[in-house]
Write a structure and sequence with these properties.
The chain is an alpha/beta fold. About 35% of the residues lie in helices and about 15% in strands. It has one domain: Metal-dependent hydrolases (TIM Barrel). Strands 1-2-3 form a three-stranded parallel β-sheet. Strands 6-9-10 form a three-stranded parallel β-sheet, covered by helices on one side.
């Protein structure tokens, strides 16, 4: 925690959101997230960082998988008893054809695109999350921009506008290696056609470094900002997060 805070201060950041992958009460996907027993230590580390770095506003958050069985835990434990400032939604798996399908590698046809879009829409409808992370991550494995990706994107963008949920342009995707597609080499995400389409909707965006290492505390946020400005997208006002109140 101190490494991230130190990097933030060195780069002139004044407000830093700390957000690990949420531990789930049933231990699901434990290979990529902390155990529930580690949650008190996580909270204490953030509290300690606030004392050590008084010049930095450190916000306590989690990147969450959505699911009806988890919403009570998010609302009552994270946002309630533990006093998290905010939580947000980032899909890494989603329900499709009776099983959980991985976002990275599992979205390859119209059915999986539809299921992914429906999952995001259900999360946005819940009203729990401050924003939706990397909504265009389907570009990791769906390689063509076609009528199916347009339909998926329009469904997501329509819901984001209706439920007033900001969408994240993810800087970490700009650090990852490019992939080969039938349309040439490109980043997995951000996928620019998605954001070009977003300009047709009354949506708001934010830019996030999604730093998996303190050295990436700024990361490629400049390039992500350039995407937002290229398509004339509106930036979300997220100052309310500092109050710990979901809108």
């Amino acid at each position: 925690m101190a490494d991230y805070c130190r990097a933030a201060v060195a780069n002139g950041i004044t407000v830093l959101g700390i957000s690990d992958h949420v531990p789930l009460p049933d231990g699901r996907w434990k290979s990529v997230r902390m155990a529930a027993s580690e949650l008190p230590g996580y909270c204490q580390a953030i509290n300690d960082a606030r004392d050590v770095f008084p010049e930095l506003t450190v916000l306590k958050s989690m990147e969450c998988e959505h699911g009806a069985k988890y919403t009570g835990f998010y609302r009552e434990e994270l946002l309630g008893r533990l006093g998290f400032d905010y939580i947000f939604f980032g899909a890494h798996s989603f329900p499709c054809r009776g099983r959980w399908t991985p976002v990275y590698g599992g979205i390859t046809d119209a059915d999986t695109l539809i299921a992914y879009a429906e999952y995001l829409i259900d999360a946005m409808e819940s009203g729990l999350y401050a924003f939706a992370a990397h909504p265009d991550v389907f570009g990791c494995s769906y390689l063509r921009w076609d009528r199916e990706t347009v339909a998926c994107s329009r469904a997501i963008l329509s819901a984001a506008a209706a439920y007033r949920v900001p969408l994240e342009i993810n800087g970490y995707g700009l650090i990852k290696p490019e992939i080969d597609t039938p349309e040439g080499r490109r980043r997995m995400y951000p996928w620019e056609p998605f954001w070009e389409l977003a300009a047709e909707y009354d949506v708001q965006v934010l830019v996030n470094s999604d730093a998996h290492d303190p050295r990436d505390i700024i990361g490629k946020t400049g390039q992500a900002l350039a995407i937002a400005r290229k398509y004339g997208l509106s930036f979300a006002d997220l100052s309310y997060l500092e109050t710990g109140q979901i809108r």
